[in-house]
Design goal:
mainly alpha
């Protein structure tokens, strides 16, 4: 029963994706919020720094950016 529902939802999801025009609105937005990190993981490509860069967005600037992205998004029936 769960597998059947999951398959049905996946098909509906795939149909919605097929109807979108990604030239008008991106499907995914990746945002690396900071390079500051106390770890040095070998698999990480971020070249982390021990402290935040003073040019990073403030919390208020970040919220405004998110609002701008949201307002420019193409609305769908999702």
């Amino acid at each position: 029963m769960i597998e059947e529902r999951a398959a049905t939802e996946r098909r509906a999801h795939d149909q919605r994706l097929a109807s979108l025009d990604f030239a008008l609105s991106p499907f995914t937005i990746a945002w690396e919020v900071t390079r500051a990190c106390a770890f040095a993981c070998r698999h990480c490509r971020a070249e982390a720094q021990p402290r935040r860069d003073p040019r990073e967005l403030t919390s208020d600037e970040a919220v405004r950016l998110i609002d701008q992205i949201r307002s420019s998004a193409v609305r769908s029936s999702w």
